[in-house]
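Standup notes, structure subgroup. Blocker cleared on the heme C input:
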Amino acid sequence: MRIGHFVPVVALFALGLALLRPAQAADQPEDRAIADSLAAMLRAGRTVISANQARINDPALGPKGLDGKTVLAAALAGFTKATGADPLASDPASRGGKLLRAEMDAIVAVMDAAQSDIDTQGVGFKGFIPAVFGRLVSEEFGKRAGGLAHMKVTAPIDRVRNRASRPDPFEAKVIGAQFLAPGWTRGAAFAATVTQNGGEVFRVMAPEYYAPSCLACHGGPKGSIDVTGYPREGFAEGDLGGVISISLFH
Ligand code: HEC
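Run returned:
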């Protein structure tokens, strides 16, 4: 009885995954390269915020000089260091070049809009952290991407802090069936071509794991309140922290 009940569930689940048509990088090399560069730019930008976090949080400091142009320049340098490629060398007329520039513009817009908050003297923690930067840049990028792409940082549904970052059904499925499954190659991205709203979408999800620096907020004691006002989740170094999720529309 038990087994009879179990099998159809497994079969349905397997069918669902088969419909995802997992794509190797080679299937869509151009799309995959575009998605990888968009993710690398987001990481490079967050790294700049992270490197300046102590200054951003310093109540004694006024202007921090973290305007859009300055942060973008540092992000471009970080991108080149991480990937070996110069983002400005991409053809601005190509799909990838347009999207990467849309993301650069998003970084500038987010930082310029955050100036008065970041530069406020007399306030310590201002809530401007890499995760918030990443969410705002993704939102701004979406507005500038001309319907060609969508980017977001999401996480397993049981550990999402901001409701706006909850995983969609595809993301929830990949997180559960791939990234959290035993045997998934740590750090490996998942790519698939799917049909969404009648159109083909190339989706890439890149997992990210908690580092020691994340645990001040996402570590323990579980339930205690961190500096941002959220309860700590009690996670450990190396646990899946989230996913950069990129969709390219055709
Ligand atoms: C200062 C506290 C703090 C630190 C340190 C921190 N986070 Fe977060 N994290 C937050 C907050 C607050 C949010 C919600 C941001 C928002 O409003 O979108 C968040 C959101 C996220 C999200 C997006 C999904 C969600 O839950 O909304 C991911 C993924 C994430 N953090 C992973 C990490 C990783 C990985 C690190 C270390 C590299 C890290 N965080 C370090 C506080 C922190």
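Discussed briefly. The first strand starts at residue 149 and ends at 154.
Next: hand off to the docking folks.
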